[in-house]
């Protein structure tokens, strides 16, 4: 996977929002300069209009030039790219300032003065300072963004790689027991456990198809049913095409693990875990419900796992994710919805056939 360039900090100034922001900022600068000038001479709307016209022209033309050369600038080292942009702004300011002085001199009938008139020099210095500050701002923002992305990726990978120790120990004990009485079941359990570990240690946070996630859930449930037998019952309602819906890896499996560990395991008679996946209005909804043992549940891991899943979904879909947990008298329910988003390539083969009952 190609890492983002550390130098690509120049934003797209051709975007409509960027142009609107630029116009507003330039106008505010013109107003400030006119107000500062009123300390030494009476405030003049004519001066404000001329200042505004000059700044808007310089700002918009400089943005257009930078926009056209953005790809080249972003290939340069950060310092050189920033200096190049400042140079473009300074040169643009110099040309428009000299042109404006000649135009005003021609209209008024007075001499225009040379290119190094104090007004021209002042405009060039102001533009250099402002452009330098803006470039520094863009660079710092880009570095903060890259740092946040790296920290988020590291956190997602760290959270994704967690498997509860009790599940590992229980699984190994089950496998050890089955080796003598049912070698085929023991071999299947080893394969299922290895696939779960492979998924938990997988690098990156790229989404996978729902079919792959269901395959992992199938393996996890198969291991747990070796231990719990008929106490563990599951009901599936998969009302979407699993191959066309994408989810972050290990999204549903931790929800199942919570439901079994906190809902089924404490009950002597066991219980039913219900999993529903539906698609409506361009959104995917995932609903998991399990029995709630009497007296409440004191395990903190439940909340940690739910926060883990929420953060990983938000890393991909942002604020469009909705996450609801509801603890009723006899049931605990989790409902998550997110935009359907980009679909996984149907030609990609899942980890294994899910074999889920639908």
Q: Which parts are unreliable, with pLDDT below 50 for 5 consecutive residues or more?
A: 1-7, 342-358
Q: For the report, how would you describe the main beta sheet?
A: 5 strands, mixed
Q: What is the name of the CATH topology of the largest domain?
A: Heat Shock Protein 90
How many beta-strand runs? 7
- How much strand? 5-15%
The pLDDT mean sits at 78
Number of domains: 2
Q: In percent, how helical is the residue content?
A: 55-70%
H and E order: HHHHHHEHEEHEEHEE
The CATH superfamily of the largest domain bears the name Histidine kinase-like ATPase, C-terminal domain
Give the termini separation. 36 Å
CATH architecture of the largest domain: 2-Layer Sandwich
Work out the helix count.
9
Write up this protein.
The protein is of the alpha+beta class. The chain has two domains: 143 residues, no CATH class; 179 residues, Heat Shock Protein 90 (2-Layer Sandwich), CATH 3.30.565. The chain contains nine helices and seven strands. The strands form two sheets. A five-stranded mixed β-sheet has the order 2-4-5-7-6, with helices on one face. Helix 1 crosses helix 2, helix 6 packs across helix 7 and helix 8 runs antiparallel to helix 9. The longest helix is centred in the middle third of the chain and has 43 residues. The radius of gyration is 31 Å and the shape is elongated. The protein starts with 15 loop residues before the first helix and ends in a 19-residue tail after the last strand. The relative contact order is 0.08. The N terminus and C terminus are likely disordered.
